[in-house]
Specification:
The complex is a heterodimer. In chain A, about 15% of the residues lie in helices and about 20% in strands. By secondary structure, chain A is of the alpha+beta class. In chain A, strands 1, 2, 3, 4, 5, 6 and 7 form a 7-stranded mixed sheet that branches. Chain A is globular, with a radius of gyration of 15 Å. The model of chain A is unreliable at about 135-160 (pLDDT under 50). Chain B is mainly beta. Chain B is built from 2 helices and 27 strands. Chain B has helices at about 40, 295, and strands at about 5-15, 20-25, 30-35, 50-60, 65-70, 80-90, 110, 110-115, 120, 135-140, 150-155, 160-165, 180-185, 190-195, 195-200, 210, 220-225, 250-255, 260, 285-290, 305, 310, 325, 330-335, 335-340, 345-350, 360-365. The model of chain B has no long low-confidence stretch (mean pLDDT about 90). The chains are: A alpha+beta, B mainly beta. Chains A and B meet through helix 1 of A and strand 14 and strand 20 of B.
Chain lengths: ~160, ~375
């Protein structure tokens, strides 16, 4: 439903030469700004830092629902914190891959894909970033952001506004 | 007629005034289907096109084909042929059913695209392209056109086709010639209605006219929001805290690609479609967000979401026309007919031969066997 009814923004800050580009931190920041500017509530509370080596705190976050094809691309995003590096594993969801800033990424093998939708004809992988109680239409209580990300060297951030 | 296996379903329908492709929802696993044109069975045939009476499809037949029995030459005698196009097409929006309609066509090479608000795309193969077909370009030099689904506005057989119609042309030409690339035919729309759409132009008017790159299928009263990138100029339409999260209401449906909205854009920055030089960027979109029932009530009779002349599958009408619905189905697309492989000329299809034709269909699954 989100893929059909939500607006989106493209990743434009990458260097892969395609449109959209690969997912980058500035693209994710755009999404977070859009959510926050529209007073979207985060879904998950922050995870406080603890004195455990190799871990780091996690901000209060929105969820991003995306494809497992983006696994490698997310690792390359500045500030990415893998789920195993969270200081406390209790709030970690089974499908969670990691977080960047205020977004925690949930990945599924059946994540949304727009086939051959990039400028160079490559597949575009959609990531839907949700605020609390967001709806695509009708009663709007928060802002739903749809990130479209392109696998490999390409990423599109889709921003669904609700 | 006896059927082998399990009959999954049967039904009847009446052909509309304008014969269009007919959707018949059938549970998954259909292996065969018969369609009978009851009306044409009871009359003599005509000169042209030949009038189809009975149609048969079985799993394994190519999409758009089928066996047809027809009448011709003012005779009641039946002839048999196969349809080259316009027959039966198994439909599965997930694209997972073998033999079903490919939702996205294979890439077909193009050699050039003009730098115009309606780019003319040169190609030696326009198979499957007609006015109203949706295509997606790729790998051309026009990065502001690539990846954007656009309707075909004109076709010259195996020579070229023109992106967009005169009524929904790009506000701004791409700025570069396209060069070689590919096109793909897009055969399925997004599953859920109402759908977001790319906006190709917005006028500056008391009731601004908004053009979309493919049919919008919206109805009066639909509430929409815009996402206009800075490069497109008319950012005053964007929903922000400063404008109290502005949303527009569809005032009227001008045509399949144009609507008017209740926002006065006369003082807004002029709209432009992003040029190739301005990419990578976002592209202007409209996003459905709700309904203004007060506006909808004023045009209750116009509250039918349409796509390619037919009501959007599973959509509601009246005040519920804007409701979010899943338009997906498993079933069969009955075509309007095409040339017979032996006859060489047109034979009407299983969607009907003439307005008010009564057609019966039965579909089933075989108990054994395969393709």
């Amino acid at each position: 439903m989100l893929a059909a009814t939500a607006g989106f923004i493209n990743c434009v800050n990458g260097v892969n030469g395609d449109i959209p580009t690969e997912i980058t931190r500035p693209d994710i920041n755009r999404v977070i700004r859009a959510l926050r500017n529209n007073n979207a509530y985060t879904i998950m509370d922050m995870i406080e830092g603890e004195d455990r080596f190799g871990t780091g705190p996690v901000r209060a976050s929105y969820f991003s629902l995306g494809s497992t094809q983006l696994v490698g691309d997310l690792d390359n995003v500045q500030g990415f914190l893998a789920a195993e590096q969270y200081p406390n594993q209790k709030p970690v969801l089974r499908s969670e891959y990691g977080s960047v800033s205020n977004i925690r990424f949930l990945m599924s093998s059946i994540g949304s894909v727009s086939p051959n939708a990039s400028s160079l004809g490559a597949n575009v992988f959609n990531n839907f970033v949700c605020g609390m109680e967001a709806k695509v239409k009708g009663l709007i209580k928060s802002l739903l952001i749809d990130l479209e990300a392109l696998r490999g060297d390409r990423a599109q951030v889709a921003l669904a506004t609700a | 007629m006896s059927y082998y296996g399990t009959v999954l379903g049967q039904g009847t329908f009446i052909a509309p005034a304008t014969i269009v492709n007919r959707v018949v929802a059938i549970p998954s696993g259909v292996d065969w289907m018969w369609v009978y044109n009851y009306t044409e069975a009871g009359i003599a045939g005509g000169a042209a096109p030949s009038l189809g009476v009975r149609y048969y499809w079985q799993r394994g037949m190519a999409p758009g084909t089928g066996i047809v029995e027809y009448k011709t030459n003012a005779s009641a005698a039946m002839n048999m042929d196969t349809l080259l196009t316009g027959g039966f097409t198994l439909y599965d929006p997930s694209g997972q059913t073998p033999g079903s309609l490919a939702l996205l066509g294979n890439p077909v090479a193009t050699t050039a695209s003009t730098n115009a608000t309606r780019p003319v795309v040169t190609t030696a193969d326009t198979t499957g392209i007609a006015i109203g077909t949706v295509v997606r370009m790729s790998n051309t030099a026009q990065d502001d056109v690539n990846g954007i689904d656009m309707v075909v506005g004109a076709v010259t057989l195996n020579t070229n086709f023109t992106l967009l119609a005169a009524s929904n042309a790009l506000a701004t030409a791409p700025g570069v010639i396209g060069g070689a690339g590919f096109y793909r035919i897009v055969r399925a729309d997004s599953l859920f209605y109402p759908r977001r759409r790319f906006v190709t132009n917005i006028t500056r008017a008391v009731n601004a006219n908004v053009s979309t790159s493919v049919e919008h299928s919206l109805t009066p009263g639909q509430e929409i929001r815009f996402s206009i990138p800075a490069v497109s100029g008319m950012i005053q339409l964007n929903s922000t805290a400063e404008n109290n999260y502005l949303s527009a209401t569809v005032v009227s449906v001008v045509d399949a690609y144009n609507i008017t909205i209740d926002i006065d854009t006369t003082q807004f920055t002029a709209f432009s479609w992003p040029t190739d030089a301005q990419t990578p960027c976002d592209f202007p979109q409209l996003v459905p967000v709700g309904e203004d029932t007060g506006a909808s009530i004023l045009s209750v009779n116009a509250q039918t979401p349409l796509y390619q002349g037919a009501q959007v599958y599973n959509s509601n009408t009246g005040l519920l026309a804007d409701s979010t619905v899943n338009t997906g189905y498993l079933g069969m697309l009955l075509g309007t007919g095409g040339n017979g492989s032996q006859l060489g000329t047109a034979i009407t299809g299983p969607a009907g031969s003439a307005a008010a034709d009564v057609l019966y269909w039965v579909a089933g699954k075989s108990g054994f066997g395969g393709l």
